[in-house]
Structure to design on (178 residues):
């Protein structure tokens, strides 16, 4: 079975996870911008990754555009964001805000913690973050939004790796049985 890791992020957190996943599973990993529908046809399953900005998935337009090819394939999806991975409802709301129910029902999601370093952000993203903090009433949440964090760790990919390995073991005929 042929698998592919495809990601879309802005400042490297999603890319880092994609590279680790590609290494662990020995699969190619590439930016979504480099892949079009005609190249996707030859793969059997996908591990898609996206970060979240202002409640939306970065990869949403690419996924919508290419979904007619992906709809019959197995899709694992890792979502990278600032909100804690345990806040499942919030994390799910980002998927619902970005993807149609038809796309959502086909995908298995994994929630990974991200990274945000204020000094690396573009002027626009820093501005958007400050606006968001201004509109937030809770003083603790306000402060958290403007504080650097880096929770990108390789161990976070373990559940996803295990799920993909189980999937390929079940669907790939074993060499020993030939
Ligand atoms: C302008 C801006 C908006 C963001 N909006 C959200 C958000 O709505 N929810 C969230 O959980 N994290 C949010 N984040 C945090 C990012 O999802 C997090 O930093 C992620 O790790 C970025 O990954 P990347 O470097 O691959 O793009 C935001 C970050 C920035 C800079």
């Amino acid at each position: 079975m042929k698998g592919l890791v495809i990601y879309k992020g802005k400042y490297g957190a999603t890319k880092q996870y994609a590279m680790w996943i590609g290494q662990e599973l020995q699969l190619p990993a590439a930016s979504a911008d480099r892949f079009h529908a005609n190249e996707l046809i030859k793969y059997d399953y996908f591990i898609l990754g996206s970060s979240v900005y202002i409640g939306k998935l970065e990869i949403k337009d690419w996924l919508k555009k290419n979904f007619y090819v992906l709809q019959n394939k197995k899709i694992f999806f890792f979502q990278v964001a600032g909100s804690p991975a345990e806040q499942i409802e919030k994390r799910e709301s980002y998927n619902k805000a970005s993807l149609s129910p038809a796309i959502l029902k086909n995908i298995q999601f994994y929630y990974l913690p991200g990274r945000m370093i204020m000094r690396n952000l573009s002027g626009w993203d820093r501005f958007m973050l400050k606006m968001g903090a201004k509109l937030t009433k809770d003083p603790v949440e306000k402060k958290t939004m403007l504080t650097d964090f880096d929770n990108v760790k390789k161990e976070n990919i373990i559940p996803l790796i295990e799920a993909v390995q189980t999937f390929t073991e079940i669907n790939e005929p074993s060499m020993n049985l030939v």
